[in-house]
């Protein structure tokens, strides 16, 4: 799954796949220049198969491409959470 998201307010944000029923990989890139990877995570902790990326100092209006993938081909109804810090 991929999502386009625009930063609503300058600040710090956490992106996670908590609540997804499979082993996820999370990647956050700049939309429009997807060669720039801002953050990537496979497992957020030992034994926890969901992913989390925290990005600090995102500027209002920046557009992001957020990719939720399954590790090893796993798939299902993934969940994406975006929280301001």
Please give a structural write-up:
This protein has 85 residues and is mostly beta strands. 0% of the residues lie in helices and 54% in strands. It has no helices and seven strands. It has strands spanning 2-6, 11-16, 24-30, 33-41, 52-58, 63-70, 81-84. A four-stranded antiparallel β-sheet has the order 1-6-3-4, with no helix packed on it. A three-stranded antiparallel β-sheet has the order 5-2-7, with no helix packed on it. Strand 3 (24-30) and strand 4 form a beta hairpin. It is globular, with a radius of gyration of 12 Å. The model has no long low-confidence stretch (mean pLDDT 92).
Helix content: under 10%
Strand order of the largest sheet: 1-6-3-4
Rg, Cα atoms, Å: 12 Å
The number of helical segments is: 0
Q: What is the arithmetic mean of pLDDT?
A: 92
H/E series: EEEEEEE
Structural class given helices, strands, pairing?
A: mainly beta
Number of strand elements: 7
Strand-residue fraction? over 45%
What does the overall shape look like?
A: globular
Low-confidence stretches: none
The N- and C-terminal alpha carbons lie at a distance of 24 Å
The description of the largest β-sheet is: 4 strands, antiparallel
Brief summary:
This protein has 85 residues and is mainly β. 0% of the residues lie in helices and 54% in strands. The strands form 2 sheets. Strands 1-6-3-4 form a 4-stranded antiparallel beta sheet, with no helix packed on it. Strands 5-2-7 form a 3-stranded antiparallel beta sheet, with no helix packed on it.
What keyword list fits this structure?
0% helix; 85 residues; mainly beta; globular
